[in-house]
Predict the 3D structure of the following.
Amino acid sequence: MHQVNPQGGGSQVPATLPPLPSRIDAETGAFAALRAGSAIAVLSDEGFGRSTLLWRFAADSRKFGVESLTVLGSEALTPIPFSHLAPLATRVPEIAGYAADPLRTSQALADRFPGRPLRVFVDDSEYVDPTSAAILTQLAGVGTVQLVIAVRDEASLPSAFRAFLAHAGTAKFTLHAINEGDAKVMLEAQLGQLVNASSLTHLLVAVAGVPRELSRLADAAMSAGSFVSARGYLVYVREHVAEDSSEAQQRVIDWWERAATGVPEGDQTQLPALLAPLIASGDPEARLFAGRLEAITGDYGHGMRLLTPQAGDTEYFRASAALWRAHAGEQIDPGQFEEWAANEDFSPSLRFGLLAAVMAHECYAGKPVAALERGFAALESDLWKQVSGPDSGALLYSLHLALVCEGAHELVHAFRVVGIDWDRLGLDHGLFIASRAHALIECGRAVEALDLAHQVLALTEIGDPFGIAGFVAAIGAASATMLEDVAGAGEMLAMYRAGSARSGQMLRPEAERLALGAILLVDGAAAARVELDTLLGRASKECQPFVTMRLTHEAWRLGLLDGFEALAVAAEDIEGQLADALRRLPDGALIEDIASSQYADGRTLYAAEFLSEASRIERANGNKMRAQALLTQAAELADQLPGVNTPRLARVRVDPTLLTAREIDVCVRAAAGLTNVLIAEELFLSQRTVEGHLQRAYAKLGVSDRRQLLPLVDEMPLRD
């Protein structure tokens, strides 16, 4: 991580702004209307790019040799008749006599611009004097000029321009606030480096989606040194200034308020010293805060001692301490937690935290559907309206876990969360992005998940108040493993191991499962089996059948376990779509239906793996036609996941160390989708020779079909 030089070239606004994704379609239509000769109105508030679009219209006119003129409305000149016609009178002197002889003037303009009218761009058109507006609209009506007006407030337009705006032949384009995709394009072009998604959101919210203000804020932040560079991304560090930070308690509150936006790591290390005198004076909140921080991100033993109830502790303290011991990995008493969650004397934040712990317990106990219903009921309660920020996060992350565990497509339940006011909640961006990466890796979208993991890790380099670096590194390790990036998987695995053993808190079992593939790739099968046995033993001891099922499925995916039968046994009595699919796998006649349902739920990778393994089984049983059909379906699904490979997909990279030069030439083209006929034409070989090279290469690589071939390693779509 390093501070960005504010004097660097990245702070300069580019001469040409790349197209903003949300405006591409509208701008394409606007330029088409311009070139077709239509009258145009551009509507937007100040700073939304109205003037920039007019400037681009003028540049487009010059490019195609069309004469144009720009008129700027001025509030000071509005009361003066004909004042805004001065630029036009300068260009065409005959216009000066318009009032005395309008017919002659119109004819003069028609003669001056025969066949192609003069384009007149009017910015700030609400300030154009009424007489000039009337003349311009009349000239536009007879085809002498092509009129393009830009306006902030339609109601303040002169009457002639209002009539122009209402005319059916006028093409209207409204420039709205920009979104995150637009902000990404703008800022990365302006600053010359990738910008972290969390920082994009912070900046965009701060300027309410106004592009000009976004550019100004980014430039000011760069000049002030408010951007730091971490893992290839610029991260915006927003400082919070408290009204009174003289007291230790206020300094702790101030730190917590800033934690979600990223603070220098040193601030976190100072917290125990800040809290020590408060704990010594018997402040229960300070003891809870310190215990929570230590148990999850610091000295685990000391943290757990602070969270252990003592004589005289209130029931509120006991419930709060039990919740944070659960976050640190201690098993909960769900009945006691439910009783506490129903206690109306407790704060809404504590009650939702306790409820979230119960939901996580239900998920791992194999009842994610029950957890989902509990979570959605909480979102619909009046109590939900009383929480925000970190207070609401625990419930939403447990809801995320339940959605992943239940296994239905995320859109199935989208209508139940559509009413959430995310701005009010102000969730920690690192946790939010991490949950998205977790969902993507579940779908097999490894390239996207790896990119998000890098972005979250960039945030944690600046500050990791929630102790998520290890959990996110596990997601990154799984993503890199799917992309067969050994070095990347090794780096992420090392970060996972260096992180807290409680990283991920209640999602820790998912982190441990995700790391298995990287352990297999980096350390070998023996190390992976030892880790698997350890995790299975703990899941059994802690009565977490869902964790057992997930680990069994992961072991099967990685080739550490054979046969569909073990998956079916592990899925017994577990709720959810994935469990239902695993239970039915031994029935070979259902494999297409199972794969189809998994694909519909977004689990493209799992669907492809099931089909690939079914193909292998059918081939081993001598059913070559059925095997070929299943393999074709598996390949079509796997092709939707660029660069991804797993042991169960049974695909292989074209390996130069195993093949002859000619076999490499043939296989590279086959992996790219070329037919034998096209390969033969490109290499000046016969089709029979091409087939021979392929068959010998298949034998060396251990595959039976061209659909199992992947490109050379250096052609993989890995992150820059």
In short: Residues 1-15, 240-246, 256-266, 714-720 have pLDDT under 50 and may be disordered. The CA atoms of residues 238 and 388 lie 19 Å apart. The radius of gyration is 32 Å.
